[in-house]
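Below is how a single chain appears once it has passed through the pipeline. First comes the sequence as given, then the structure the pipeline wrote out for it. We keep one example in the README because the format questions we get most often are answered faster by looking than by reading.
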Amino acid sequence: MLLTELLSGNPKPKEDVNANPRPDYAPSYGYTSEAGERVSVAGSQAIATAYRAKNIISDDVAKMPLQVMRRDGRSIQQVAPDAVTRNMAYLLQISPNLWGWTPFQFKKAAIEWLLFYGNAYLWNPIVGPRQLLVLPADRTLPVFDLEGNLWYRHTFSNGTPVYIPAVELLHLLINPDATGFVGRGVITFARQTFGRQLAAHKTQSKLYAQGLLPAAYVQVEGTLNKEARAKVRGEYEAQMSGSENAYRLAVFDNLITKFEPINIQLKDAQFLESIDANDRDICNFFGLPEHMLNRGKEAYNSNEQKYIEYLQGTLDAFLVPWEEAARIRWLSAGEQANTYFKFIRESLLRMDSKARGDAMAVRIQNGMMTPNEAREKDDMSAYPDGDRHYMAGNILPIEGPAAENPGLEGE
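Resulting structure:
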């Protein structure tokens, strides 16, 4: 189904240009940096640390199940996917749209737009079969009409603008601007750091391309015009540039009176230290501990403890807004009272088999889960009588045994 077919019933409102937010979408074309490098989304991902940080966050959110939960009194149940009605449970656990996307693909695309552009637009059109689509953040804008209603203007690749009512679109954003309607990505704030790192890597590449001879000056007899100087320079570079010519012997005729290389030791210029500092700054911009990017030392003996800090300090800032916004945009007013969305964070907590077994044993022995519920977490079949709750027999109510058996008082 073409996207234009999903918009057939949408009117074209008259925009209030004075009220519209003014988003900064420079990441598409690139920000200028003081290092002289243009920083764009594609260019920044050429930096290994930024590329890895982007993938760690987007992959971890994408592989975390997003489930629909329903509370009925004190009973909480997971809503089952329904292929006939294509309910939200089906879209989030089986396939979000008619193109056959997987939930992983859908969530990863949303987070990547969110990280670099500060905005992710998830469209749930009311026309046709129910589905979820990710609109490119560089071509989607929040706008207001003259009555103050919020719309989202999306521009197709052919340049045609269309308007989507706010009720159809879930807008995720990070680092909101002063209006609160437009987010700003990591590049907006890290442009100078990215620019320095791109410039540093370019300097390294040029150094290798010139045979590890960064610069030199040659003095000749007499006065040379522009063409003659270019010829001397070209002859020298032809013989000495390129890694295959590194440390080769330079031979000059008697016109050359002086040759002196300009040696810049990169370590003496703290060049390597600056690259390392830039990588450390990139870790901070993405909110990732250095050891997750193959830098520094791991601070924990426990994998679970490591992931708990990462979950609370980094990922929850992406998960909680999504859960809250989904309840508003993807549920009817009647459903919002007892239905909600929940990322299963436990799927990210990495425990070894012994720690996992001990944790489940404690829950079973204290009546927090049944044996069958524990088996289901490991995709194991239930067994008869495995749905009973157990508790150690030496635990008594605070009020004492008499509160449970009044007849004991007279004994």
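The chain has three domains: 1-202+265-350, 215-262, 352-411.

See the next section for the split statistics.
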